[in-house]
Specification:
30% helix; single chain; alpha+beta; six-stranded mixed beta sheet
Protein backbone atom coordinates (compact mmCIF):
# COMPACT_ATOMS: atom_id res chain seq x y z
CA UNK A 1 0.00 0.00 0.00
CA UNK A 2 1.45 3.40 -0.96
CA UNK A 3 1.82 6.44 1.24
CA UNK A 4 -1.31 8.24 0.03
CA UNK A 5 -4.43 8.76 2.13
CA UNK A 6 -7.30 6.45 1.26
CA UNK A 7 -10.90 7.45 1.80
CA UNK A 8 -14.31 5.91 1.61
CA UNK A 9 -16.06 8.96 0.18
CA UNK A 10 -19.21 9.70 -1.69
CA UNK A 11 -21.09 12.75 -2.88
CA UNK A 12 -24.63 13.12 -1.62
CA UNK A 13 -25.53 14.69 -4.98
CA UNK A 14 -29.08 15.90 -4.88
CA UNK A 15 -29.78 13.43 -2.11
CA UNK A 16 -32.65 14.63 0.05
CA UNK A 17 -31.87 15.00 3.72
CA UNK A 18 -35.23 14.77 5.43
CA UNK A 19 -36.25 16.00 8.83
CA UNK A 20 -39.61 15.66 10.51
CA UNK A 21 -39.16 19.39 10.91
CA UNK A 22 -36.24 21.74 10.36
CA UNK A 23 -32.58 20.85 11.08
CA UNK A 24 -30.80 21.29 14.40
CA UNK A 25 -34.08 21.28 16.34
CA UNK A 26 -35.26 24.38 14.48
CA UNK A 27 -38.78 22.97 14.10
CA UNK A 28 -40.94 25.17 11.85
CA UNK A 29 -38.69 28.21 12.29
CA UNK A 30 -38.02 28.45 8.53
CA UNK A 31 -41.48 27.43 7.34
CA UNK A 32 -42.26 30.92 5.98
CA UNK A 33 -39.43 30.52 3.46
CA UNK A 34 -40.74 27.19 2.15
CA UNK A 35 -41.09 27.02 -1.62
CA UNK A 36 -39.22 30.26 -2.30
CA UNK A 37 -36.39 30.74 -4.82
CA UNK A 38 -33.50 33.14 -5.43
CA UNK A 39 -34.15 36.76 -4.44
CA UNK A 40 -37.61 35.85 -3.09
CA UNK A 41 -36.02 33.24 -0.82
CA UNK A 42 -33.49 35.77 0.47
CA UNK A 43 -36.29 38.22 1.34
CA UNK A 44 -38.36 35.48 3.00
CA UNK A 45 -35.39 34.46 5.14
CA UNK A 46 -34.87 38.10 6.10
CA UNK A 47 -38.41 38.11 7.44
CA UNK A 48 -37.66 34.97 9.46
CA UNK A 49 -34.30 35.89 11.00
CA UNK A 50 -34.43 39.67 11.45
CA UNK A 51 -36.46 39.72 14.66
CA UNK A 52 -34.29 38.80 17.64
CA UNK A 53 -33.71 39.49 21.28
CA UNK A 54 -31.44 42.55 21.14
CA UNK A 55 -30.42 42.24 24.78
CA UNK A 56 -31.65 45.60 26.00
CA UNK A 57 -29.86 48.91 25.46
CA UNK A 58 -26.85 49.15 23.18
CA UNK A 59 -24.45 49.60 26.10
CA UNK A 60 -25.83 46.63 28.02
CA UNK A 61 -25.96 44.38 24.96
CA UNK A 62 -22.41 45.32 23.94
CA UNK A 63 -21.09 44.70 27.44
CA UNK A 64 -22.89 41.34 27.57
CA UNK A 65 -20.85 40.09 24.60
CA UNK A 66 -17.96 39.34 26.96
CA UNK A 67 -20.19 36.90 28.81
CA UNK A 68 -21.76 35.45 25.67
CA UNK A 69 -18.36 34.61 24.18
CA UNK A 70 -17.78 32.19 27.07
CA UNK A 71 -20.62 30.11 25.61
CA UNK A 72 -20.35 30.79 21.89
CA UNK A 73 -16.58 30.81 21.34
CA UNK A 74 -14.86 28.53 23.82
CA UNK A 75 -12.22 25.94 22.94
CA UNK A 76 -12.33 22.43 24.36
CA UNK A 77 -9.62 23.49 26.85
CA UNK A 78 -11.77 26.38 28.09
CA UNK A 79 -9.76 29.12 26.37
CA UNK A 80 -10.84 31.72 23.82
CA UNK A 81 -11.59 30.38 20.34
CA UNK A 82 -9.93 33.00 18.12
CA UNK A 83 -10.34 32.76 14.34
CA UNK A 84 -7.80 35.48 13.48
CA UNK A 85 -4.80 34.02 15.32
CA UNK A 86 -3.70 30.53 16.31
CA UNK A 87 -1.80 31.69 19.40
CA UNK A 88 -4.76 30.42 21.41
CA UNK A 89 -3.70 30.78 25.01
CA UNK A 90 -5.94 33.69 26.01
CA UNK A 91 -8.28 33.16 28.94
CA UNK A 92 -11.74 34.61 29.33
CA UNK A 93 -11.82 37.65 31.58
CA UNK A 94 -8.08 37.64 32.34
CA UNK A 95 -6.93 38.57 28.82
CA UNK A 96 -10.04 40.55 27.99
CA UNK A 97 -9.53 43.88 26.16
CA UNK A 98 -6.98 46.35 27.51
CA UNK A 99 -3.69 47.38 25.90
CA UNK A 100 -1.70 45.17 23.56
CA UNK A 101 1.78 45.36 22.14
CA UNK A 102 1.92 42.12 20.23
CA UNK A 103 -0.12 39.18 19.02
CA UNK A 104 -1.38 37.02 21.86
CA UNK A 105 -1.74 39.80 24.45
CA UNK A 106 -5.52 40.31 24.64
CA UNK A 107 -8.75 39.52 22.81
CA UNK A 108 -11.45 42.00 21.92
CA UNK A 109 -14.92 42.17 20.36
CA UNK A 110 -14.53 42.02 16.59
CA UNK A 111 -17.21 43.11 14.15
CA UNK A 112 -16.33 40.76 11.30
CA UNK A 113 -18.40 43.15 9.17
CA UNK A 114 -16.77 46.38 10.41
CA UNK A 115 -19.19 48.69 12.21
CA UNK A 116 -17.97 51.72 10.24
CA UNK A 117 -19.69 50.14 7.22
CA UNK A 118 -23.12 50.63 8.83
CA UNK A 119 -22.60 53.78 10.84
CA UNK A 120 -20.89 52.68 14.03
CA UNK A 121 -22.86 52.13 17.20
CA UNK A 122 -26.16 51.32 15.51
CA UNK A 123 -28.53 48.62 16.72
CA UNK A 124 -29.16 45.86 16.00
CA UNK A 125 -26.05 45.28 13.86
CA UNK A 126 -23.60 46.58 16.43
CA UNK A 127 -24.26 43.76 18.89
CA UNK A 128 -25.43 40.95 16.59
CA UNK A 129 -23.52 37.87 17.75
CA UNK A 130 -23.68 36.26 14.35
CA UNK A 131 -20.93 38.56 13.13
CA UNK A 132 -19.27 39.26 16.49
CA UNK A 133 -16.25 37.16 17.44
CA UNK A 134 -13.53 37.31 20.11
CA UNK A 135 -10.30 37.97 18.22
CA UNK A 136 -6.70 38.83 18.98
CA UNK A 137 -6.54 42.57 19.55
CA UNK A 138 -3.24 43.06 17.71
CA UNK A 139 -4.27 41.07 14.64
CA UNK A 140 -7.67 42.77 14.64
CA UNK A 141 -5.95 46.16 14.59
CA UNK A 142 -4.11 45.07 11.45
CA UNK A 143 -7.37 43.97 9.83
CA UNK A 144 -8.91 47.38 10.68
CA UNK A 145 -11.96 47.92 8.45
CA UNK A 146 -10.54 46.34 5.30
CA UNK A 147 -12.73 43.86 3.40
CA UNK A 148 -12.11 40.14 3.36
CA UNK A 149 -10.14 38.93 0.38
CA UNK A 150 -7.22 36.85 -0.78
CA UNK A 151 -3.67 38.19 -0.67
CA UNK A 152 -0.01 37.28 -0.59
CA UNK A 153 0.22 39.09 2.75
CA UNK A 154 2.96 41.55 1.83
CA UNK A 155 1.69 44.07 4.42
CA UNK A 156 1.28 41.72 7.38
CA UNK A 157 1.17 38.06 8.37
CA UNK A 158 0.12 36.83 11.78
CA UNK A 159 2.02 34.13 13.67
CA UNK A 160 2.51 30.96 11.62
CA UNK A 161 1.09 32.85 8.61
CA UNK A 162 -2.37 32.15 10.00
CA UNK A 163 -3.97 35.32 8.59
CA UNK A 164 -2.70 37.94 6.17
CA UNK A 165 -3.08 41.56 5.04
CA UNK A 166 -2.12 42.95 1.66
CA UNK A 167 -3.17 43.71 -1.90
CA UNK A 168 -6.09 41.63 -3.10
CA UNK A 169 -5.16 38.89 -5.57
CA UNK A 170 -8.73 37.74 -6.25
CA UNK A 171 -9.91 38.92 -9.65
CA UNK A 172 -12.17 41.97 -9.49
CA UNK A 173 -10.49 44.01 -6.75
CA UNK A 174 -6.95 45.22 -6.13
CA UNK A 175 -7.30 47.14 -2.86
CA UNK A 176 -6.05 46.12 0.58
CA UNK A 177 -7.78 43.07 2.05
CA UNK A 178 -7.60 40.81 5.10
CA UNK A 179 -7.44 37.08 4.47
CA UNK A 180 -8.49 34.70 7.28
CA UNK A 181 -7.07 31.20 7.50
CA UNK A 182 -8.50 28.51 5.20
CA UNK A 183 -9.96 26.72 8.23
CA UNK A 184 -12.40 29.57 8.83
CA UNK A 185 -13.08 31.04 5.40
CA UNK A 186 -16.38 29.20 5.19
CA UNK A 187 -17.33 30.46 8.65
CA UNK A 188 -16.83 34.06 7.57
CA UNK A 189 -18.54 33.51 4.22
CA UNK A 190 -21.66 32.22 5.98
CA UNK A 191 -21.41 35.16 8.38
CA UNK A 192 -21.55 37.59 5.46
CA UNK A 193 -24.38 35.67 3.79
CA UNK A 194 -26.31 36.03 7.04
CA UNK A 195 -25.58 39.78 7.28
CA UNK A 196 -26.71 40.69 3.75
CA UNK A 197 -29.81 38.53 4.20
CA UNK A 198 -30.80 39.62 7.70
CA UNK A 199 -30.20 43.30 6.90
CA UNK A 200 -31.23 43.39 3.26
CA UNK A 201 -33.52 46.33 3.99
CA UNK A 202 -30.53 48.31 5.28
CA UNK A 203 -27.61 47.41 3.00
CA UNK A 204 -28.70 49.82 0.24
CA UNK A 205 -28.44 52.68 2.74
CA UNK A 206 -25.04 51.40 3.93
CA UNK A 207 -23.82 51.49 0.33
CA UNK A 208 -25.08 55.02 -0.19
CA UNK A 209 -24.24 56.58 3.16
CA UNK A 210 -20.84 55.02 3.83
CA UNK A 211 -19.80 54.08 0.31
CA UNK A 212 -21.00 56.59 -2.29
CA UNK A 213 -21.06 59.45 0.23
CA UNK A 214 -18.31 58.09 2.49
CA UNK A 215 -14.59 58.65 2.54
CA UNK A 216 -11.26 56.96 3.16
CA UNK A 217 -10.81 53.24 3.77
CA UNK A 218 -14.41 52.78 4.85
CA UNK A 219 -15.67 54.10 1.53
CA UNK A 220 -13.32 51.79 -0.40
CA UNK A 221 -14.34 48.78 1.67
CA UNK A 222 -18.09 49.40 1.40
CA UNK A 223 -17.97 49.97 -2.35
CA UNK A 224 -15.81 46.86 -2.73
CA UNK A 225 -18.10 44.63 -0.66
CA UNK A 226 -21.67 45.65 -1.53
CA UNK A 227 -23.38 46.28 -4.87
CA UNK A 228 -25.92 48.90 -3.78
CA UNK A 229 -28.93 46.59 -4.13
CA UNK A 230 -30.99 44.33 -1.88
CA UNK A 231 -30.19 41.51 -4.28
CA UNK A 232 -27.63 40.17 -4.81
CA UNK A 233 -26.40 42.56 -2.08
CA UNK A 234 -22.73 41.68 -2.41
CA UNK A 235 -20.44 42.91 -5.19
CA UNK A 236 -19.72 40.47 -8.00
CA UNK A 237 -16.14 39.66 -6.99
CA UNK A 238 -16.93 39.43 -3.28
CA UNK A 239 -19.88 37.11 -3.83
CA UNK A 240 -17.86 34.89 -6.16
CA UNK A 241 -15.05 34.63 -3.63
CA UNK A 242 -17.32 33.96 -0.65
CA UNK A 243 -19.21 31.29 -2.58
CA UNK A 244 -15.87 29.61 -3.24
CA UNK A 245 -14.88 29.91 0.42
CA UNK A 246 -18.17 28.39 1.56
CA UNK A 247 -17.80 25.47 -0.84
CA UNK A 248 -14.16 24.75 0.06
CA UNK A 249 -14.81 25.01 3.81
CA UNK A 250 -18.19 23.36 4.52
CA UNK A 251 -20.26 23.83 7.67
CA UNK A 252 -18.41 22.48 10.72
CA UNK A 253 -19.46 21.15 14.09
CA UNK A 254 -18.07 24.38 15.58
CA UNK A 255 -20.50 26.46 13.52
CA UNK A 256 -23.48 24.25 14.34
CA UNK A 257 -22.75 24.47 18.06
CA UNK A 258 -22.23 28.23 17.85
CA UNK A 259 -25.46 28.70 15.89
CA UNK A 260 -27.40 26.86 18.59
CA UNK A 261 -25.67 28.82 21.36
CA UNK A 262 -26.43 32.17 19.71
CA UNK A 263 -30.01 31.10 19.16
CA UNK A 264 -30.35 30.52 22.91
CA UNK A 265 -29.24 34.13 23.42
CA UNK A 266 -30.77 36.04 20.50
CA UNK A 267 -33.65 33.74 19.49
CA UNK A 268 -32.74 33.90 15.81
CA UNK A 269 -30.64 31.60 13.62
CA UNK A 270 -28.15 31.64 10.75
CA UNK A 271 -29.86 29.63 7.97
CA UNK A 272 -26.61 29.20 6.05
CA UNK A 273 -25.37 27.01 8.89
CA UNK A 274 -28.60 25.11 9.37
CA UNK A 275 -28.80 24.41 5.63
CA UNK A 276 -25.32 23.72 4.19
CA UNK A 277 -25.10 25.05 0.65
CA UNK A 278 -28.18 27.27 1.01
CA UNK A 279 -26.28 30.07 -0.73
CA UNK A 280 -26.60 28.08 -3.97
CA UNK A 281 -30.41 28.47 -3.79
CA UNK A 282 -30.08 32.24 -3.43
CA UNK A 283 -27.10 33.18 -5.62
CA UNK A 284 -25.75 30.00 -7.20
CA UNK A 285 -26.58 27.04 -9.38
CA UNK A 286 -29.91 26.31 -7.66
CA UNK A 287 -31.65 29.68 -7.92
CA UNK A 288 -34.42 28.07 -9.96
CA UNK A 289 -35.05 25.35 -7.38
CA UNK A 290 -37.58 25.83 -4.60
CA UNK A 291 -36.28 25.70 -1.03
CA UNK A 292 -37.83 23.10 1.27
CA UNK A 293 -37.34 23.76 4.95
CA UNK A 294 -38.03 20.16 6.05
CA UNK A 295 -36.92 18.15 3.00
CA UNK A 296 -33.70 19.80 1.96
CA UNK A 297 -31.30 18.74 -0.80
CA UNK A 298 -27.58 19.42 -0.62
CA UNK A 299 -24.54 18.79 -2.81
CA UNK A 300 -22.16 19.02 0.13
CA UNK A 301 -19.55 16.29 0.06
CA UNK A 302 -19.65 13.87 2.97
CA UNK A 303 -16.33 12.17 3.62
CA UNK A 304 -16.25 9.18 5.91
CA UNK A 305 -12.75 8.26 6.98
CA UNK A 306 -12.03 4.55 7.09
CA UNK A 307 -8.57 3.14 7.62
CA UNK A 308 -7.02 6.60 7.41
CA UNK A 309 -3.29 6.94 7.69
CA UNK A 310 -1.47 9.83 9.30
CA UNK A 311 -0.82 12.91 7.23
CA UNK A 312 2.22 12.87 4.97
CA UNK A 313 3.56 14.48 1.82
CA UNK A 314 2.81 17.93 3.21
CA UNK A 315 -0.64 17.09 4.63
CA UNK A 316 -1.39 18.33 8.14
CA UNK A 317 -4.18 17.23 10.47
CA UNK A 318 -5.98 19.57 12.87
CA UNK A 319 -8.76 19.19 15.39
CA UNK A 320 -12.02 21.05 14.78
CA UNK A 321 -10.75 23.84 17.04
CA UNK A 322 -7.55 24.25 15.04
CA UNK A 323 -5.05 22.33 17.17
CA UNK A 324 -2.40 20.40 15.24
CA UNK A 325 -2.71 16.62 15.60
CA UNK A 326 -0.31 13.77 14.93
CA UNK A 327 -3.05 11.37 13.81
CA UNK A 328 -6.72 11.37 12.84
CA UNK A 329 -8.97 11.26 15.89
CA UNK A 330 -12.56 10.11 16.22
CA UNK A 331 -14.97 12.82 15.15
CA UNK A 332 -14.21 15.83 12.97
CA UNK A 333 -10.69 16.37 11.66
CA UNK A 334 -9.43 19.19 9.46
CA UNK A 335 -7.07 17.96 6.75
CA UNK A 336 -4.88 20.68 5.27
CA UNK A 337 -3.20 19.55 2.07
CA UNK A 338 0.13 20.67 0.66
CA UNK A 339 -1.66 22.87 -1.90
CA UNK A 340 -3.33 24.79 0.94
CA UNK A 341 -6.84 23.39 0.47
CA UNK A 342 -8.65 22.12 3.54
CA UNK A 343 -11.21 19.34 3.93
CA UNK A 344 -13.28 18.22 6.86
CA UNK A 345 -12.94 14.49 7.52
CA UNK A 346 -15.16 12.48 9.84
CA UNK A 347 -13.57 9.42 11.42
CA UNK A 348 -15.86 6.87 13.05
Amino acid sequence: MNRKLFFTAWLLTLAATSWAQGPNNSGEYYKAADGKKGAELKTALCGVIYDRNEGGSLDNAYKALWTHFRTTDVLSNGKVWDMYSNLREMEFGIDQAGNYKKEGDVYNREHSMPNSWFGGKVMPMYTDLYHMYPTDGYVNSKRSNHPFGETNGESYKSANNFSKLGKCTFEGYDGTVFEPNDEYKGDFARTYFYMVTCYEEKIVDWYTNYGVNGSGETQKAVLATFDGNKYPGLSEWQLKMLMKWAKNDPVSEKEINRNNAVYDIQNNRNPFIDYPGLEEYIWGDKVDEAFSYDNYSTDIQDIMAEGLKDGNQGTKIYSADGLLRRTYQRGINIMKQKNGRTRKVMKK
